[in-house]
Design a protein that fits this description.
- The protein has seven helices and twelve strands.
- The longest helix has 32 residues, at 27-58.
- With 347 residues, it is an alpha+beta fold.
- The strands form three sheets. The protein has a five-stranded mixed sheet, with no helix packed on it. Strands 4-10-9-6-7 form a five-stranded mixed sheet, covered by helices on one side. A two-stranded antiparallel sheet has the order 11-12.
Amino acid sequence: MTLANLHFLADPSWGSFWEPVSGSTVAPEVDALFYFIFWICVFFTLLITVLLVVFAWKYRAREGYDPGEAPKHNTALELTWTFVPTVIVAVIFVFGFQRFMDMAVPPANPYTIVVQAKMWSYSFYYPNQHIDNELHVPAGVPIEMVLNSSDVIHGFYIPAFRVKKDDVPGRDNKIWFVANPPAPGDQDEKYDIFCTQYCGDGHSTMRAKVVVQSLDDFKAWLKKASVFVGTDVQHGQYLWNTRGCNSCHSTDGSTNRCPTWKDLYESQVHLADGTTVTADTDYLRYVIEHPNSKPIPGFDKIMPATIDAGLVTDQDVSYIIDFIKTLSKYNHDAALPATAPAAAPPK
């Protein structure tokens, strides 16, 4: 007997109040165990409440009533309230352990995606070296997620899939799932990803999306997403948006967690050691490649090791700097003419 035999307990017509829509093949069995425990709790809560009210009324103190001698022992009752809970707990353990083992051991040859968590964003690494800030998966294919963290403990949780595991620094944790096909009429189905471990003041904003596609649509997306076509500045903006830079560095002047990139290039930056430096190309490249090496007062040292963690390459750093330049009013390059003036005719 498996949890599949209890599928009637996860009827979505009355289960959606407690659980989000089922987005994976494992979700119905997780829901079945949830509702099995839930209705047991409801039954015994009502039973005990009713008995409490009945006994309180029946055996209340009143004039002319003799309660008699209190009972000392009842073997049948003792065995009942020992045996029944033991059986219930054993059933829950068997079903729960079976489901746990099924979720812990992936099938052979799953499609593997690496999840790199950091304050306060996720990056998803695909087998062809593409990196994205949105998780795309093909429906009906076993997906194995290898969870890493570059700073503190994070919790990777997809409520619709009923899968959750912690991203722990220095350890590869793994989960797997098979996503259900998109609903009829929906080309791509999207589900939320949350962080379930408090990881700093940006914890509540550490969210992402799972996009479930057909296998053909997924292959087409991955092929297109892996080849970026655009200018160096556009590539820099793309990297800012997909490598987690946007979770800390704004481009509109706001400075919640880290210095804004607006008007940063060629500005004067006051460092924690009391010195002042010009945020030129050399400075920007150094602080990107050597995170937290030149701290600024008022900001925590939370920048991940971008190069060592494989988030960006040396060439990517150049693209990012090109993007940062376009955000600054101090960028003298912006004042240059779009085309060179015509050469003066020879005398």
